[in-house]
Write a structure and sequence with these properties.
The chain has 18 helices and no strands. The protein is an all-alpha fold.
Length: 458
């Protein structure tokens, strides 16, 4: 007999006949009993994960804006050495931390967490939490073009396991995996102030199925983490779109075209990301600090040329959404961010791909909108609206989680009236990526981690 739910039901029955179902004494079905027991634990997971994610988010914001301001103030030659030095040292230390203390903290950590939920790998929260936090802060703060959401999702999952040990949840019980999933939802919710997206991501991508216990735990943890993050940081959406016009029905054909373009771009992104990992794999014999310093130096050069192109790219996304970027620079910035993301992620440092995808999607969407506006103004009256649509479409094509992409964009922007063009564009992108038989990126990364040589382990 499992402890917790079933024992509670049996005791409540006062030692009745053994053939009587446990729920007969309480009027609760077994899943309902488990949900009742997991609620306080999920609440604690949301509180702790929200605090950790808020600290991570605020630290990165401080370091990134401070680094950009510092480089911009310096004379040209001095700024070059400072930008390259910060990138090389920060990235070198970040990769050394990962390789030395917690190799599973490399990259976004979402594929590793998915393997944990599937029972393929163990999660060592005592080393993942500090290493992921420190490596992410140092690497992304130094300019690596990676996002905070992957680290917060993995740290959230590790928090779920940590809290399960506090409550002495026995190993092997589904409750542990439910709390890990709840922590992941809380991490994404706190990273973007998007509790519904955190919940849907766990159900759609991390677990791939719906179970009542995971739903309840993830929902409560995500909402709690979002409240904590809003109290600690601010109560507004990540992107504030004041005055942005709502797309009309005439924009739907352009949204579909943008979805097709994003579908091909998403496939190219996935295959290039895997190729960059294979390329850096050849440098495995190099000291970790040297590999990280090499990647960081490349990022530093780019940051010296244009500081906003490095780091999370939040500045670029905001400028794209406000339509402030000149048309002739859009494709240049897309190409630069694409290459820098491949270098950053391929190095193996801690950092996610959500933010890079959103930056690329916003720039690409703005470019498509501006191009159509130049030819047929009536179909794209407001080109900047397609920056929002492009973010959701590229995310969908890459991760292959259309519901998460749509909900994430509505929560990030607070623009729920963008739902229809987002639906059209995201499912067009999904269809193209599926037709090309490309593996969803997190699934491909999980399989690569499990079988680096391409064959199952003996």
């Amino acid at each position: 007999m499992t402890p917790g739910a079933d024992q509670t039901s049996g005791e409540a029955g006062g030692g009745g006949a053994p053939d009587r179902p446990p729920q007969a004494a309480t009027g609760l079905k077994e899943p309902e009993v488990k949900r009742r027991h997991i609620l306080p634990k999920a609440l604690v997971v949301g509180l702790v994960a929200g605090l950790i994610a808020s600290g991570f988010r605020m630290t990165l914001h401080f370091l990134e804006h401070g680094r950009i301001a510092w480089i911009q103030r310096l004379p040209l030659l001095e700024g070059f050495f400072i930008a390259v030095g910060i990138g090389a040292v920060g990235s070198g230390v970040a990769l050394w931390l990962v390789r030395r203390f917690a190799p599973e903290a490399a990259g976004s950590g979402i594929p590793h967490l998915k393997s944990v939920v599937m029972g393929e790998k163990e999660l060592h929260w005592k080393r993942v939490l500090p290493v992921k936090f420190l490596s992410g802060v140092v690497g992304i703060g130094a300019g690596l073009t990676l996002g905070r959401e992957g680290p917060t999702v993995q740290m959230g999952g590790a928090t779920g396991l940590m809290v399960s040990t506090w409550f002495r949840v026995k190993q092997g019980k589904g409750e542990r995996k439910a709390l890990i999933s709840a922590g992941a939802a809380a991490g994404l919710a706190a990273a973007f102030n998007a509790p519904l997206a955190g919940l849907i991501f766990v159900l759609e991508e991390l677990n791939g199925k719906f179970t009542p216990v995971v739903f309840v735990a993830s929902f409560l943890a995500a909402v709690t983490a979002d409240v904590v993050c809003r109290v600690v940081t601010r109560e507004t959406p990540v992107f504030i779109l004041q005055g942005m016009q709502v797309p009309t029905l005439s924009a739907l054909p352009v949204a579909a075209i943008l979805g097709v373009v994003a579908g091909f771009a998403g496939v190219a992104f996935n295959r290039s990301l895997l190729a960059s990992l294979n390329l850096f794999e050849r440098l495995k014999r190099w000291p970790p600090f040297a590999v990280g310093a090499l990647a960081g130096a490349v990022i530093g050069v780019a940051a010296w040329i244009y500081p906003g192109v490095s780091g999370s790219g939040a500045v670029l996304s905001e400028r794209a959404l406000s339509g402030e970027i000149a048309v002739q620079w859009m494709l240049v910035l897309v190409a630069a961010r694409f290459v820098l993301t491949m270098v950053s992620y391929g190095s193996g440092a801690a950092g996610g791909i959500f933010a890079p995808l959103l930056v690329l999607g916003s720039l690409g969407g703005l470019a498509v909108g501006a191009g159509v506006h130049a030819v047929v103004p009536g179909l794209a009256t407001y080109p900047e609206t397609f920056a929002v649509i492009g973010m959701g479409a590229l995310f969908t094509a890459t991760v292959r989680a259309p519901l998460t992409g749509i909900v994430l964009m509505t929560e990030l922007t607070g623009k729920y009236d963008f739902m229809l063009p987002l639906l059209v564009s995201c499912f067009a992108a999904y269809g193209v990526a599926e037709a090309l038989r490309d593996r969803p990126i997190y699934e491909a990364l999980r399989e690569r981690s499990a079988f680096p040589s391409g064959a199952p382990e003996p």
